[in-house]
Here is the input.
Amino acid sequence: MRDKVYFASDMHLGAQYHPDPLAAERKLVRWLKSIQDDAYALVLVGDVFDYWYEYKYVAPRGHVRFLGALAELADSGVEIHYFTGNHDVWIFDYLPTEIGLTLHQEPTVLEFFGKRFFVAHGDEYELENKHFQFLRRIFHSPICQKLYSWIHPDLSSALARRWSLSSREKGTREHDVVPYRGEDKEYLIRFAKKHTADRGADAPDFFIFGHRHLMLHLMITHSTQVVILGDWIHYDSYAVWDGDRLVLDYFEPTEN
Here is the structure.
């Protein structure tokens, strides 16, 4: 019976900081196959790929096992939603066309089994980091995207890989292991609380975020919950909704 909705984010497939990128992809595929029989929907909440830019006739190399497993889920009737993050913001029509998933480039409220889920990667709300927001505006600019498309794919991919590795070496990447800062200092929780207060009775039942690489499941009112999904670098984590409970869990737990 297809009676569960799964949420996951921040796999960063293809990243050179995975000890074994192919093993990371294979683990993710095992998870997708494990949910195939009972998944009503799969919601991917951004940064599934560490880098993705699709040209009009060229898509990034690699990830064939993951893409094949995703297509198999879609073909079997699973509803797939893909929210772009700050690393895979340049997904356009390739995955919706080839796989049949629904692409979301903005925060969206989805309804499953009578409950409303506010889903966003979360980078939209990192407002205190001015440098990050400046880069985000550039990456989302249609003009900058057009200019970037004029660079040969071999060169643009090499530049992106080098930038990612350089940032990792400096320890500045957002996917390093991060501590929980507390409700008042976590910008995603602050946003969820404000949004809930502003919407009143129309507020969603759940907020689902990625981006922070932090596993967190928190009640912010008697009827509203916030989940930050962790990642597939340190935790191999996901959330599952069965129509009654939302549970944050691990797949094949490993020591960190």
Summary: Helices lie at 21-34, 64-75, 94-99, 130-140, 142-148, 153-169, 187-199. The two ends are 34 Å apart (CA to CA). DSSP finds seven helices and eleven strands in the chain.
